[in-house]
Write a structure and sequence with these properties.
about 1000 residues; alpha+beta; 28 helices; about 35% helix; peroxidase; fatty acid biosynthesis
């Protein structure tokens, strides 16, 4: 279900799966055997059609993306009427098709080419109808003026489109038809396709009112079964003059003149299905012979007399030209049938979204593709002798870029349950215009073509194929593993960082990921305890022989059935949208604002108001401690300052717009801080600093670096915010593997010293339990924001390594439970099917370890690993990541870094508001300047200017600050020496 599927390029079919609609099941056959496999193939073909649109745009010089086909409209009216005949045959009286029933119809007549060429150029012609059954239901009928398709199935259809893309001259058309097309589909198939196209395109067309249009594919007609439909001129239509060879718009002029004097009428007719041989459903290139399937008129379409040369008529035509006609806009009673129609579901959605700027594609230049292959091969050989982090900086940058390109191709796995087989649907509602310029509360409509992508409740994706092994959930015992390898013996500090870095990453993770849990005591995971050990699972509870904690809620497949055991929904949105500050849904977000809809966030004398449980009211309130209070308070204040600046600069902006614009600005500023400040602080090398700065603002102005990026990844030359959204190989989501590598609880110290920034004198020394939960706010208000920031700034977090898990988190009270978070981390990773460490390495294209000594050079650690694990293949992922000796300057392992280099850029690259809509029109010019000119240091100083003398001069605010020196002593040095802390 979760694996990346590779399919042969074949058209072999298998009977419809049980998931198919009952009426359709007896007629349809799915390529690859199942609707899911076929859907994956169609999604790829849809992306191919988007590339065709880009090629047409480039060749034609059009300002925007055109329709892949039928680009040039000849007629667009919305006042036509369809009336069913009173003598409609009994078996055809289905749904809206009833005797005498009449409906308004939108009509679009067009040339078939994707290029806007003269009407006298050889071409097919098309008709699209939208029959308005009611305010919430319509039926789209699409037809072409040739009885059969040039393509039997979707693969041939897309191959033809690719060959013909931008073929706007006779020479290019010849090359397309006689060179490119045979290369794609074979000589005999290409010859048949050419014959069909030529027969239709070279017909003399005098008037689109006199053409007959065929559906080509079949649709269901209720219990009557499949039918093909056609639209033919009604009897008595007046003749038209010969086609012009000089007027490029003669067809539009002719139909305009015709409607100026009379109405136009067509008969809507159907042919009934007979059998799979004479009336095939899956072969779009096969004709339904009228002798086998007689033509039955069922309704009359009338386009009334009207003047098309008015402003109103032109506005209607423009409006209709923006519509996305789709044969799947109907009901299940009239469901489209056959391979071509099923492919249209994915193709029409993708191409229409691409045309309307809701979906994007940025195919890499051929030089990038070729260079990536060469570099991948070269660096694989080089890295056997020299790891990437020991290479010269510019060569290392190329090495990392090669890693990222490979990971993008092979390590993005979509886990969302997609619609398969396709289903009919009503006309999609128009997008709320406000959602084009602001983030939604729940993460919907970031991708306008797929509103649920990345939204609250959408599934976690995967970077690696899951390895779900219930038999190994408790092997080796996770409690024993935690005690032997994770317990903090002596605090191991990370000297290149301060505690603000630890608070920051939890602040960020709460924006990104949140697995929903069952209420405590309702559905639990039970972990057997080692012999002789007891555990109280509730505060004050009796000792038990098992450790128990709340199970995560999984996602059940559509239609019920067994619960998917390793598919989970994110209770936060996957986007970088500041939800930890603003809330993940509308009710929470509005409750956090000042009364009467004002834009500012609620603060009480500069602090967040407390809820009934003593925890501050903010967007994400779980696992609360002082570090989160500091971050949430700081950025709530920042939001309010931004609101004031917007009001001053744009006095006519209403409060709701002020709020949403400020949220955009603050969220983007947070993303920038994480990208160019926090990450280079925890991965402290020149290479990472250059790479992450390039992610945000482009590479340095160095010709050699820019030449390398031009060769390898031309889109990286400007910084991601100046590019188009790109989801690469799968729709955007954060992943379970990403969650695993961000298990950085060792960053949290066990005790904290709070000092007065003015004197450096100690105010208090407290353990973690004194600075978490309901105790937090009283302490925070006592010491104040400035002293809180200063105290965290001069102290070190823990190193992300073995033997350094915070003691307080190993007996942690949460939601009525007492949990050992080190055990929970191990168990969650196992139960979510994240591969164990050695498979994790292999899945990220790193060499597997062959012995325990390959993982650690410490004899004691090797002995403990051997004692706990039968083989190196059994080592827990988190244990392996913590045990690795990281590259010099790195705060976490090289293996975790592989996930990071993939997902760090993806969080930016997929986000509309950090790419195509990262612009002054959305953020305001003030907002763009605010993001450009600010960072963590300026945010801190805006709210605590008295800290200016303590912040690092040449490093980020996440590097150690200068401590105050009371009585001439350096308190940090004294404290470390007195406590005898081991420094890694």
């Amino acid at each position: 279900m979760y694996e990346t599927r590779r399919h042969k390029d074949s058209v072999g079919t298998a009977p419809a799966a049980t998931g198919a609609p009952p009426r359709a099941a007896r007629y349809e056959r799915y390529v690859g055997g199942t609707p899911e496999v076929e859907r994956a193939m169609f999604d790829k073909l849809a992306r191919d059609l988007m590339r065709v649109q880009l090629k047409i745009k480039k060749r034609s010089g059009a300002a925007g993306i055109e329709r892949t086909f039928h680009a040039k409209a000849i007629l667009g009216v919305e006042n036509a009427r369809l009336r069913f005949h009173h003598d409609l045959p009994e078996d055809l009286r289905v749904g809206f098709a009833q005797p005498g029933a009449e409906y308004p119809v939108i009509v679009r007549l067009s040339n078939a080419s994707g290029v806007r060429q003269p009407d006298f150029a050889p071409d097919l012609r098309g008709a699209a109808l939208r029959i308005q059954e009611g305010p919430d239901q319509a039926h789209d009928l699409l037809m072409t003026n040739h009885p059969v398709s040039h393509a039997r199935h979707a693969r041939e259809f897309v191959a033809f489109a690719q060959a013909m893309a931008g073929a706007d001259t006779n020479l290019r058309k010849g090359i397309a038809l006689f060179v490119k097309l045979p290369a794609a589909v074979g000589w005999s198939t290409a010859a048949r396709m050419r014959r069909n196209v030529t027969a239709g395109a070279r017909r003399e067309v005098r008037s689109l009112a006199l053409e007959t249009y065929w559906s080509r594919g079949a649709i269901l007609w209720g219990d009557a079964g499949p039918v093909r439909f056609r639209l033919r001129p009604a009897a008595g239509a007046s003749a038209a003059p010969p086609p012009s060879q000089t007027d490029p718009d003669y067809l539009a002029h002719e139909i305009s003149a015709r409607l100026a004097t009379s109405e136009i009428a067509f008969d809507l007719c159907v042919q009934r299905y007979v059998d799979a041989r004479r009336t095939p459903v899956e072969n779009g290139a096969a004709d339904w012979n009228e002798e086998d399937a007689p033509v039955v008129p069922v309704a009359t379409l009338t386009i009334p007399r009207q003047n098309l040369d008015t402003a109103d008529a032109r506005a209607v035509a423009t409006r209709i030209d923006q519509l996305a006609f789709d044969p799947w806009i109907t009901t299940e009673e009239f469901r489209p049938l056959g391979n071509l129609n099923r492919a249209r579901k994915a193709a029409y959605e993708a191409s229409s979204a691409h045309r309307r700027g809701h979906r994007f594609m940025t195919p890499p230049p051929k030089r990038n593709v070729a260079a990536a292959r060469v570099l991948d091969t070269g660096f694989r050989a080089l890295n056997r002798a020299v790891p990437w982090h020991r290479l010269p900086t510019r060569l290392g940058l190329l090495n990392v870029e090669a890693f990222r390109q490979e990971l993008r191709r092979r390590n993005l796995i979509d886990t969302e349950i997609r619609e398969a087989p396709p289903k009919a649907h009503p006309v999609p509602p128009p997008i709320d215009e406000r959602l084009r310029v602001r983030r939604s509360y729940d993460g919907t409509y970031n991708d306008l073509s797929d509103p649920r992508m990345g939204a609250l409740g959408s599934a976690f994706g995967r970077n690696l194929t899951p390895d779900y092994r219930p038999d190994l959930f408790n092997e080796p015992n996770p409690v024993t593993v935690a005690r032997e390898l994770l317990d903090r013996k002596t605090f191991i500090p990370a000297r290149s960082l301060n505690i603000l870095a630890a608070a920051w990453i939890q602040f960020q993770v709460h924006d990104w990921v949140d697995h929903k849990r069952y209420p405590a005591g309702t559905k639990s995971v039970e972990v057997p305890l080692p012999p002789g050990m007891n555990w109280s699972n509730t505060p004050g509870g009796k000792p038990e022989k098992v450790m128990r904690f709340a199970e995560n809620e999984g996602i059940a497949p559509d239609g019920g059935g067994a619960m998917a055991p390793i598919l989970f929904a994110n209770s936060a949105s996957h986007w970088w949208d500041g939800s930890e500050v603003y809330g993940g849904d509308e009710s929470v977000a509005k409750a956090l604002r000042e009364p009467d809809g004002r834009a500012a966030l609620l603060l009480e004398e500069g602090h967040l108001p407390s809820g009934p449980d003593g925890i501050p009211l903010t967007g994400f309130r779980e696992n609360w401690w002082l570090g989160l209070s500091v971050m949430h308070t700081l950025f709530a204040r920042e939001h309010n300052v931004v609101c004031e600046a917007l009001r001053h600069e744009y006095p006519r902006m209403d409060e709701d717009s002020v709020y949403h614009t400020a949220r955009l600005i603050v969220s983007a500023l947070i993303a920038k801080i994480h990208t160019v400040e926090w990450t280079p602080a925890i991965l402290a090398t020149e290479l990472i600093d250059i790479g992450l700065t390039a992610n945000w603002s482009g590479p340095p102005q160095n010709w050699l670096t820019r030449l390398g990026l031009w060769l390898v990844d031309t889109h990286a030359r400007t910084g991601i915010p100046k590019t188009l959204p790109d989801h690469h190989a799968a729709p955007y989501s954060l992943t379970e593997d990403f969650v695993t590598v961000y298990r950085m609880h060792p960053l949290i110290p066990d005790d904290f010293e709070f000092a007065d920034h003015r004197s450096g004198r100690t105010l208090d020394t407290l353990c973690f339990n004194d600075v978490q939960g309901a105790a937090t706010e009283a302490l925070f208000r006592r010491i104040g924001l400035a002293n809180g920031l200063y105290s965290f700034g001069i102290a070190h977090p823990g190193a992300v390594t073995l033997y350094n898990y915070p003691r307080a988190l190993q007996k942690f009270e949460r939601d009525g439970e007492v949990i050992d978070l080190s055990v929970v981390d191990l168990v969650r990773t196992r139960r979510r099917g994240v591969p164990r460490y050695n498979d994790f390495l292999a899945g990220l294209h790193k060499p597997r370890i062959r012995s325990f000594q390959d993982l650690s050079s410490d004899p004691e650690t090797v002995a403990r690993l051997k004692d706990l694990y039968r083989t190196v293949d059994d080592i827990d992922t988190m244990v392996g990541l913590f045990a690795e000796n990281p590259p010099e300057g790195f705060g976490f392992s090289d293996t975790a870094f592989r996930i990071f280099i993939l997902m760090a850029s993806r969080r930016l690259q997929s986000d509309r508001f950090l790419t195509v809509d990262f612009r002054p029109e959305i953020y305001t010019p003030l907002g763009m300047d605010w993001i450009e000119n600010n960072g963590m240091t300026s945010v801190i100083l805006r709210h605590c200017p008295e800290l200016a003398g303590f912040l690092p001069r040449t490093a980020s605010a996440f590097a150690p600050w200068r401590p105050a020196t009371p009585d001439g002593h350096e308190p940090g040095t004294v404290r470390d020496r007195e406590r005898g802390r081991h420094v890694r």
